[in-house]
Design goal:
The complex is a heterodimer. Chain A is mainly α. In chain A, 65% of the residues lie in helices and 5% in strands. Chain A folds into two domains: 2-62 and 92-377, no CATH class; 385-501, no CATH class. Chain A contains 21 helices and seven strands. Chain A has a five-stranded mixed β-sheet. By secondary structure, chain B is mainly α. Helices cover 69% and strands 4% of the residues of chain B. Chain B has helices at 2-60, 70-83, 101-112, 115-140, 145-157, 159-164, 170-186, 194-210, 212-229, 235-253, 268-271, 283-299, 304-316, 321-344, 350-377, 382-393, 406-413, 429-441, 445-454, 464-471, 477-484, 504-509, and strands at residues 398-400, 457-462, 488-494, 497-502. Chain B has a four-stranded mixed β-sheet with strand order 1-2-4-3. The longest helix of chain B has 59 residues, at 2-60. Classes of the chains: A mainly alpha, B mainly alpha.
Chain lengths: 507, 510
């Protein structure tokens, strides 16, 4: 008898813990994860930049430390970065193969974002349906699927930043202050994006003051603390980079010619394309409602966050894709509020089930309007197999200290697959005269004058030139014009070409 | 009789009471003074320790006490004045020299004391006295002495203060003069006395001759402080008119040209010490200042005029280096307000309070360590000195190096350079600058030779910093040319410092 009572209590507890809401949410999480993994696991290989993450994770796995002094990148240089993300991948790679871990972790983080968006929107709207729809939006918004082949640090930083914003909203409640600090520390060790949230908090305080609302002391205190902490930590970490690059440190010392591809102009159409028209319209309506009809502190924070993301995108202070990720998540959170208003209004009508019908309609409309951008964004940007094979040839047939010239984009690939030194790669921080290096590399693929090419090759101590199929496509060439038999030897002649420099000098 | 006695007794008692009151007042004043001295001991000691330890560490590293820059020019000119009281030309560069009271003061000190002693103690003394004057001025404008003393502590870790008072800079003398004038003209016991007014005017004249920008900034500050402290504004026109007339008179009668110097376009690398600004703000101190400013703005509405002045001077400091030196002093008061606010406010989260205060402390430490590190590691080192002394013994000829190295080469080698930090005053500055830039980029002998001959350049001094900044440590441009052309002979090389002689000049002249 006693036992059955105990069982009943236990069952009730389980039921309380695992109700319908949780099951649906879990299913949504699985759906998003499944969708991501479906695309990710279909393809072998990664985006060009992802090979740096793989190398860092491998190094951590072997030595326990990240590669702060890299002998291969730029033929030997110092790198500075917050290492948490690499550690996370390295730790999981003890259980699973590294390549699988590198695909799984970002997918898991992006899928977990669905849960975070759900708890945030549910906390703000107190409406499960609106929160669920917002979570669904966040799981299938097109911008999320632009990073499928990347091992993107933004997957984790986005998750952490929205979780941190949630804990800061509930700072009055027990335990949330400590949780906020822990999350902030993890975020600091992951990425510099905490500054976007902190600036958003300052704008949020300003809006509250303008509306003659009282500031929450705990929020002010923790923001102040985090601001000092973030400033101090980043100044210590990036001191050398600040000294070297000055304010252009913000643009990561990216060469001028490449800058436009990292920091693009934002357009209204671009935002629609990235977020989808339904969340955007609902989000804009929420902003109108908050500013002119009601007051909602939490939503004011996300409006500030959205404004800051937009301004940073507009002023090109944040990489385009990252900025759109932040902006879209904020718009989605705001859209939940509009949905709640609509659902509550419809709930008051005499037609029963109308809110459910409308919820279904919104979802269908979202799917229909995002289908085109969704399919076009899933273009996996990864190196062709022919290029990989050529690099494997380099690994097996060249001396270990050889310097290989490839496009800047292929730098990490040369380091990871060929395990050889590159002339340059996509990590430009702490590199002097980057514009000169970038121009020289481009020049070396398009030059016709042999003497100038030899001068540049000697300048960078290049031993081999890797003319990949992608380089042929990009520079519209099929061979190096200046590569004659006296100074160059074509040692690999398949789809991609590899030239060996025979050590000529100009007198 | 008894009435008379009573009266005298009363008078005696009143006198005694007065005496007691007087004694009490005196005692209080003494106590106040004692308290102030006690308050001042730690900040002044801290200032002394920070400034002197930076200089001592440089000496211990076998480096001259001053880092590369203006100090060497000031010493050189003062030494020249010591030899010949009235100089009209820079003895090494041959350019026009406008008399500056600071150089005359240094020359006087060089006559009385040995140069090493003056070099070591003048910056320290000026630093400590300026800090003391700043403290007095703060107390005068009704800042609580405890707060003023804390401001001195913040001041001691300010990058601009550390730079200014570890070398012989004109701006440090301007700050000292300005503070002295402000104190003399604003002091409630002194400002009405004719002698002090005269002294103030005299000091203002010296200030105007030293730096016109400093003089104008001082006058603006003085005007606002007169308004705030409700002083007699009648004296103010005198302070303005007499020095201005004298400057005009001098410019009409002599070759003296009044110039507002120190202006530069807005750039973060000029403002933030973190970006290696010559005289910049520490980023944390800027954040603390802004926090303090918001607190003061919100709480002390009656001081809005004063706060506006502070904000204006802070904004002006983005565009002028002398204004930045002034602003570095002013912002410390607001930093203290912010720190006190953090300390005294009732924090809901205790752990955050401790964390924030700890971070503030760490940031102040970071500020001083960062600046000290920069100064200690700055050129010239022993290798540079040896090279320059070697250059001194070589035949006459102009030297090509960076603008920054100019004063140093002038001082040690006594040879003319193509460009130094004063060259921007020359009419053909842009032409010289273009020539210098073209030369550094030039890897072709024909192109380089034309410029070398045109500007009579015989020696080329290449330092490791130049290799890094100009050529990214890769043999290119002029560095490539001098190493691979027979027209250049290496005269000296040590630890990356290279001295080359262009031998085409003799052939060309012949």
């Amino acid at each position: 008898m006693k036992r059955t009572n105990k069982d009943k209590i236990l069952n009730r507890r389980i039921n309380k813990r695992l109700n319908k809401e949780h099951i649906i949410l879990f299913l949504l999480f699985c759906l998003v994860l499944g969708a991501r993994l479906f695309f990710v696991l279909q393809e072998q290989g990664f985006d060009y930049d992802a090979y740096n993450t793989l190398r860092q994770a491998e190094h951590i796995k072997e030595t326990g430390l990240p590669l702060f002094k890299d002998p291969l990148s730029y033929s030997g240089r110092t790198i500075i970065f917050p290492p948490f993300f690499y550690y996370l991948i390295a730790v999981f790679s003890f259980i699973l193969p590294l390549t699988l871990t590198a695909k799984l972790i970002p997918s898991l983080a992006f899928s977990a974002l669905v849960l975070i968006i759900y708890i945030i929107t549910k906390y703000i709207t107190k409406n499960r349906t609106a929160a669920f729809i917002a979570a669904l939006f966040s799981g299938f918004v097109p911008i999320i699927y632009t990073s499928l082949s990347q091992v993107s640090v933004y997957s984790l930083s986005l998750l952490l930043i929205f979780l941190l914003s949630y804990t800061l909203l509930r700072i009055e409640e027990k335990g949330f202050a400590t949780l906020s600090i822990v999350l902030a520390v993890i975020l600091l060790l992951t990425h510099t994006s905490i500054f976007i949230l902190l600036i958003s908090f300052l704008v949020y305080f300003l809006i509250l003051r303008l509306e003659n609302q009282r500031l929450n002391q705990r929020e002010v205190e923790i923001t102040m603390f985090l601001l000092f902490l973030a400033l101090w930590f980043n100044l210590l970490l990036y001191k050398k980079a600040f000294f070297l690059h000055g304010i252009s440190f913000i643009w990561q010392n990216i060469p001028t010619l490449l800058l436009s591809s990292y920091f693009k102009d934002i357009s209204f159409l671009g935002v629609i394309y990235a977020v989808g028209i339904v969340p955007l319209l609902l989000g804009v309506y929420a902003v109108y409602h908050i500013f002119f009809k009601t007051r909602n502190r939490a939503l004011t924070l996300y409006i500030s966050f959205g404004i800051i993301s937009f301004i940073m995108l507009w002023l090109k202070l944040i990489p385009f894709r990252a900025g759109l990720l932040f902006l879209s998540m904020n718009i989605i959170i705001l859209s939940a509020y509009s949905m709640k208003i609509i659902l509550v209004s419809l709930g008051k009508t005499k037609i029963r089930g109308l809110p459910n019908i409308l919820s279904g309609l919104i979802i269908i409309l979202f799917v229909l309007t995002t289908l085109t951008p969704f399919t076009t964004t899933i273009n996996i940007h990864k190196p062709p197999i022919q290029d990989i094979k050529a690099l494997e040839w380099i690994k097996n047939n060249t001396q270990e200290d050889a310097v290989i010239l490839g496009r800047v984009e292929e730098g990490f690939l040369i380091n990871y697959i060929a395990q050889r030194k590159n002339v340059a790669d996509s990590n430009f921080l702490l590199i002097k005269n980057i514009n000169q290096i970038y121009n020289d590399i481009n020049y070396l693929f398009t030059l016709r004058l042999e003497s100038e090419a030899i001068r540049l090759i000697n300048k960078y101590n290049i031993d081999y030139i890797f003319l990949s199929t992608k380089s042929m496509e990009e520079y519209n060439i099929s061979k190096l014009f200046y590569a004659d038999k006296d100074c160059f030897e074509l040692v690999y002649d398949k789809d991609a070409h590899i030239y060996k420099f025979l050590g000529c000098k100009i007198e | 009789m008894s009435r008379f006695r009573k009266k005298t007794n009363k008078i005696k008692m009143a006198n005694r009471a007065n005496k007691i009151k007087k004694a009490e007042r005196l005692e209080k004043a003494k106590q106040k003074q004692k308290n102030r001295i006690e308050l001042l001991i730690f900040p002044l000691l801290l200032i002394l320790i920070i400034l002197s330890s930076i200089m001592i560490i440089r000496i211990m590293h076998n480096k001259p006490v001053f880092q590369i820059g203006e100090s060497y020019y000031n010493i050189r000119i003062a030494q020249a004045i010591k030899q010949n009281l009235f100089i009209s030309k820079d003895p090494v560069q041959g350019t026009f020299y406008e008399p500056n009271p600071y150089h005359y003061l240094l020359a006087l000190l060089f006559i009385i004391f040995p140069i090493e002693l003056v070099s070591l103690f003048t910056p320290l003394l000026l630093g400590v006295v300026s800090a003391l004057l700043f403290f007095q001025l703060l107390v005068l404008i009704r800042v609580r002495p405890e707060q003023a003393a804390l401001s001195l502590i913040i001041l001691s870790v300010t990058p601009a203060f550390i730079i200014l008072f570890t070398g012989l800079y004109l701006s440090s003398f301007v700050i000292f003069l300005s503070l002295l004038v402000l104190l003399l003209s604003l002091h409630n016991k002194l400002h009405n006395k004719p002698v002090h007014q005269l002294l103030s005017i005299l000091l203002l004249i010296i200030l105007a001759l030293t730096s016109l920008t400093g003089f104008l900034i001082t006058l603006i500050i003085m005007f606002f402080l007169f308004l705030i402290l409700k002083r007699n504004l009648k004296a103010l026109p005198l302070f303005l008119i007499i020095p201005t007339l004298l400057i005009l008179f001098l410019s009409l009668l002599s070759d003296f040209t009044p110039r507002l110097l120190g202006f530069q376009s807005f750039a973060f690398k000029n403002i933030l010490s973190l970006l290696r600004a010559d005289l910049g703000f520490d980023l944390f101190l800027v954040v603390l200042f802004l926090t303090g400013f918001i607190i003061v703005w919100a709480n002390e509405k009656e001081k809005k005029l004063f706060n506006l002045l502070v904000l204006a001077s802070f904004i002006l400091s983005f565009f002028n280096i002398i204004a930045r030196a002034f602003a570095s002093f002013i912002i410390t008061v607001y930093c203290v307000v912010a720190i006190i606010h953090f300390y005294k406010r009732k924090w809901v989260l205790k752990i955050i309070k401790t964390g924030t205060l700890l971070l503030v402390l760490c940031s102040l430490l970071f500020s001083v360590m960062n600046q000290a590190n920069l100064i200690v590691n700055a050129q010239p080192d022993q290798n540079m000195l040896i090279t320059l002394i070697f250059l001194k013994d070589l035949g006459d000829g102009r030297v090509l190096t960076t603008e920054k190295n100019g004063f140093l080469v002038d001082f040690y080698s006594e040879k003319k350079v193509l460009l130094d930090s004063n060259s921007f005053l020359l009419r053909d500055y842009s032409e010289l600058k273009n020539a210098s830039n073209t030369l550094f980029r030039s890897a072709r002998l024909k192109q380089a030779e034309t410029i070398l001959r045109e500007h009579n350049i015989r020696y080329i001094l290449i330092t490791p910093e130049m290799k890094e900044e100009l050529w990214g440590n890769k043999e290119q441009g002029l560095w490539f040319l001098v190493r691979h052309s027979e027209s250049f002979v290496k005269r000296y090389e040590q630890e990356g410092i290279e001295l080359w002689e262009y031998n085409g000049l003799n052939k060309y002249n012949a």
